[in-house]
Amino acid sequence: MSDKIIDCRGMACPGPVISTKKAIEGTESGKITIIVDNEVAKTNVTKFAAANNLSSAVENQDGHYYVTIVKGTGQAVSATATAANPANSGQAYLITQDTLGHGSPELGAVLIKAFMTTLLEVKPAPSAILMLNSGVKLAVKGSPVLDQLTTLAGRGVTILACGTCLDYYQCKAELAVGEVTNMYTIVETVSQNKTVTL
Amino acid sequence: MQHSNVLVGITTSDDAGVYKLNETTALVQTVDFFTPIVDDPYLFGQIAAANSLSDIYAMGAVPLTALNLVAFPNGKLHQEVLLAILKGGQDKVAEAGAVIIGGHTIDDNEPKYGLAVTGTVHPDRVWTNAGAQPGDVLVLTKALGTGILASAARADLFAQGVAAATAGMATLNAVAAKVAADFTIHACTDITGFGLCGHVYEMAAGSKVSVVIDSTALPLLPEALEAAAMGLVPGGAYANRKYLTAVTFAETVPEPIRDISFDPQTSGGLLFAVPENQAGELVRELQAAGVVAAMRIGYVTNEGSGKIYVR
């Protein structure tokens, strides 16, 4: 156990949050006290602690806030705190090619764009979009549906592209939306959600 | 002071002033400038110009001419930085079909850039923020969260969200305004420093109506929720929240969504109040024209005046 005191008084936003993040990352376990001199910084540091499932307590001494965070052994700090999007519907789409349906590829390209654009209007938004085989091309730079996928990602939709497939089509470096994933996560996501295969 | 040719003046918290020249033409004038929101000077110039031009589009007008307003620390920053800022502004104004015809630069410790823009509109076709009617649907054209992601940029976090925010801020509201011109727009404003709730409040109070916002329908920039949840919320969002006492949240609305609804936006989207029976078609046409974030986000009600309910 070690105790740390981080003085963030006089620091501009988002300085106090970043200092708090570094201090927590550099602490195995122990008590960290962050001193800030304004309400915005106090609230933001408290939010950071909550987002990382760490409890915090605030003491106000003459307008200076002492935020105490206790970190237990083995509690990792995530850089991207999870925020559940209320928009998620429990619906997943498994997209296996870069066009929609069998038949004319030209028509298929028009249809996939129309599908993705219309998907933007569906409420609540789906939980996940998974891309396999040539489907991964929809998530790379120059894709005709990149804007649509980016917008969906903004609504909390998990966008995942198969890493093996990105490698096969040699476009991993061009991935422009979502994250690279593996078959384990794809199978897990498909089995946890109502899934439609396209 | 009242003047019969002033169609929109300083009394109604609108986006720009409107002055009637004759029966077919009114002049629309606005000015805005601010400190750099991104590190890249060319992008900053583009964003500042898109933001200044936005007030013209929000009045239903078309921009004609613009004047540069520049503050720059001469001798402390390279002259190339200034040239890049001005190039960004010029390119964005050209994209809007307008032209820069002058400007003024002063020596200042911190760089600042923006434009005074003049446009024109038919006096009968002015979109104010005060015409929303009960039963109207609200349509928003850009994703929210630019203030929170600007904090994330300063913290070197959430690169994907920051990139999307930057692209969004540099996008003109020209296409959205052009598409909407074919619809019955009862009211319009753009979302900037007071955040979504602040500008919805101005519209609701000006129109003497109340508004219900559907928090699950808000278009959000990628990673904005995550950034808000980890405390990358700018002071301006808290100031907006404190000031806007007319906003009531349902208990189920998560904290990060509340933060985003007060987040100060730079070069945000247009907010339209349209009759219910035109809203679906407007959203479809906006998305088809490339305004893919366009969403219906709420509706107007006559239950009270100047109240906002977020559910």
User: How are strands sequenced across the largest beta sheet of chain A?
Assistant: 8-7-6-5-9
CATH class of the largest domain in chain B: Alpha Beta
Low-pLDDT parts of chain B are: none
Number of strands of chain A: 9
Tally of separate domains of chain B: 2
Strand content of chain A: 15-25%
The number of distinct helices of chain B, counting runs of at least 4 residues, comes to: 10
Helices and strands of chain A, in order, run as EHEHEEEHEHEHEHE
Written overview of the protein:
- The complex is a heterodimer of chains A (198) and B (311).
- In chain A, a hairpin with a 2-residue loop joins strand 3 and strand 4.
- Chain A is of the alpha/beta class and 198 residues long.
- Chain A has 2 domains: 70 residues, TusA-like domain (Translation Initiation Factor IF3, 2-Layer Sandwich); 107 residues, DsrEFH-like (Hypothetical Protein Ychn, Chain: A), CATH 3.40.1260.
- A 5-stranded parallel beta sheet of chain A has the order 8-7-6-5-9, sandwiched between helices. In chain A, strands 1-2-4-3 form a 4-stranded mixed beta sheet, covered by helices on one side.
- In chain B, a hairpin with a 5-residue loop joins strand 2 and strand 3.
- Chain B is built from 10 helices and 13 strands.
- Chain B is an alpha+beta fold and 311 residues long.
Helix and strand arrangement:
The complex is a heterodimer of chains A (198) and B (311).
Chain A lengths: L1 E6 L7 H11 L4 E7 L2 H13 L4 E6 L2 E8 L19 E5 L9 H15 L8 E4 L14 H9 L3 E5 H6 L10 E3 L1 H10 L1 E4 L1
Parallel strand pairs in A: 1-2, 5-6, 5-9, 6-7, 7-8
Antiparallel strand pairs in A: 2-4, 3-4
Chain B lengths: L5 E3 L8 E4 L5 E9 L6 H18 L3 E11 L6 H17 L3 E9 L4 E10 L15 E4 L5 H9 L4 H11 L4 H7 L6 E4 L4 H13 L2 E4 L10 H6 L5 H9 L3 E3 L5 H8 L7 E5 L1 H13 L6 E7 L6 E3 L1
Parallel strand pairs in B: 4-5, 9-13, 10-13
Antiparallel strand pairs in B: 1-2, 2-3, 3-6, 4-6, 7-11, 7-12, 8-11, 9-12
Helix pairs in contact in B: 1-2, 3-4, 8-9
